[in-house]
Design brief:
Layout (H helix, E strand, L loop, with lengths): L35 E10 L6 E11 L4 E5 L6 H9 L6 E6 L2 E2 L7 E4 L11 H11 L4 H14 L15 H13 L5 E5 L7 H18 L2 E5 L3 H7 L2 E5 L6 E5 L16 H17 L3
Parallel strand pairs: 3-8, 3-9, 6-7, 7-8
Antiparallel strand pairs: 1-2, 1-4, 4-5, 9-10
Helix pairs in contact: 2-3, 2-4, 3-4, 6-7
The structure holds adenosine-5'-triphosphate (ATP).
Adenosine-5'-triphosphate binds next to strand 2 and helix 1.
GO molecular function, one term: ATP binding
Pfam families: ABC_tran
Keywords: ATP-binding, Nucleotide-binding, Transport
Length: 287
Amino acid sequence: MPSPADDPRPLGHAVAGATAPAPAGPSGEARRGAAVSVTGVSQWFGRRGARRHALDDVSLEIEAGEFVCLIGPSGCGKSTLLNLVAGFVAPTTGTVATDGAPVTGPGADRGVVFQQPRLFPWLSVRSNVALGPRLAGMRRADRRRIADEALALVGLSDVADRPPYELSGGMQQRAAIARALGGRPRVLLMDEPFAALDALTRERLQDEILRVWAATGTTVVFVTHSVEEAVYLGTRVVAFSARPGRVIFDELGGFGARTDREDLRSEPDFVTFRDRVHRVIRTAAGG
Ligand SMILES: Nc1ncnc2c1ncn2[C@@H]1O[C@H](COP(=O)(O)OP(=O)(O)OP(=O)(O)O)[C@@H](O)[C@H]1O
């Protein structure tokens, strides 16, 4: 895999006109080269006698450029699925691959954003973003260029030299997104990244992440508890049953790719789709 420093493209390489990539469809059959391929994955945790079945026979094909939102009752295995794709855990059974290559551990082709920004307080915002490239052994000038491009993409150029604790929660989360983008990932894995933010900041960052997605062409897999957020952001919404998580809903809402976003949340199509997903989740959660 080429190093991000060798990639001559600026981070926003797909921009030109900045419309979001067309959503690709979910496909039943495993295809080589899908951005993310999860095939027959079941996940168990714990030891004999106290084993916990987190995921049951989950298969999911995600095409390059999709923005897929994962939703489901608490404890259904959404984070587990993200962790499997990130390479933080290995599946008990089944396989996980990115671009046709089996996932055997974490890699720069997958950037991860968590609910908490997890920035190092003793490093400047720029140094936080440049940390991945630094650990990858990149030259100082290259890592500075990459960090500055990523920070520009999330609108944080002005605060690059400040320590993270001087930034608001929303700005810190944008820095965490920039850090994940620093490795020029093919896939951005986001685990409830806006859950800890106030409502207004959350809405701002939703539009921000769509802008970043359109600008980079990165495939996004986004875990959320909010049906509204899943429908607003996703080109595709995938819902899981209660634990052990199984895929019980997988549809292209397409709303994440809509460029006319003003009043989108109150449009009849949006409301109808959102209500359908709500019903699926309510039933899955047993209520
Ligand atoms: N490393 C682990 N060791 C043991 N059990 C785990 C581990 N990771 C997850 N689990 C268990 O697997 C199940 C699924 O957890 P997971 O965090 O993936 O669910 P989730 O859908 O993301 O939940 P939530 O929406 O509440 O964040 C839970 O019962 C959890 O306790």
